[in-house]
């Protein structure tokens, strides 16, 4: 059912995860925006790796999910506005920080929206991960002339490679995937190292940096071993930035190494909506300035009825995959 027909019938479609690895599409009434809210006719939503743990069905997960739940990287058109909305108008194209965006429509608070410029027309814009990349970059405090190691080249790592290179830093990219290392080269990485042998990698980076290691190391994998490796690659007085999503259990750290080298450790995740919003605005600016080029990294697209395939591909990460978007 297309969007025009759904408006005429007052219905929408939303994905509901009914159990581990299973999803169904439900037809529901269109929601009415309340005070300070808008209703979005979504054009699409990015697929986030943070969805994968709920998708696998851990013991704590409750099914079915709320309609559209798990989707939080949406963008689309303001279709209706509630009382008191003053900053956006019907017809505006926006990125949204709403959280039920695996659906053709979603409600969002007015202050959860970022206006998209006309230059971005017809281009996907998963605002939340782009804002995340900008906030991580800001907290990394990367400067011209620094050496920056980026451990893990997925969508986030590739974006950070672009940003660090544009800032005048020398980027050393590390990834398990040869294809991802080629992407890192295209994004500006000066050196690329396969992420296989722990001690060999340390020796290679030591040689590349004249024995001083890296001013900044950004860990983007969310896994124990790359976290250990990242600390080893951080220079004395350097900064280790943890951008990976570490949500599958406790981590051990080499506090002796951290202490001896006097490194700063930054957990570069944000939870405050206003900071997310500033990051999305910064992403719009960075794209306009040519410092950020996200669209070549949106490698796969799916329909809403194919959400299960999009999630499976995000989990399996075959060659050629960087990030999936679901389009409506």
Globally, the shape reads globular
Query: Helix- and strand-based class?
Result: alpha/beta
The overall pLDDT average reads 96
End-to-end C-alpha gap = 10 Å
- Estimated radius of gyration: 21 Å
Task: Describe the sheet with the most strands.
Answer: 7 strands, mixed
Helix content: 25-40%
- H and E string: HEEEHEEEEHEHEHEHEHEHEHEHE
Low-confidence stretches: none
Beta-strand content: 25-35%
How many helices in DSSP terms?
10
**Count of strand segments:** 15
What does the model show?
It is a single chain. By secondary structure, the chain is α/β, with parallel strands linked by helices. The protein contains 10 helices and 15 strands. The chain has helices at residues 3-9, 52-56, 127-140, 155-166, 178-186, 198-208, 224-232, 255-261, 273-289, 307-316; strands spanning 11-19, 22-29, 37-46, 74-81, 93-96, 105-109, 113-115, 147-151, 170-175, 191-194, 214-219, 234-242, 264-267, 300-303, 324-327. The strands form 3 sheets. Strands 3, 4, 5, 6, 7, 14 and 15 form a 7-stranded mixed β-sheet that branches. It has a 6-stranded parallel β-sheet with strand order 10-9-8-11-12-13, with helices on both faces. α7 links the parallel β11 (214-219) and β12 (234-242). α3 crosses α4 and α3 packs across α9 (273-289). The longest helix is centred in the last third of the chain and has 17 residues, at 273-289. The chain is globular and about 65 Å long. It starts with a helix and ends with a strand. The mean pLDDT is 96.
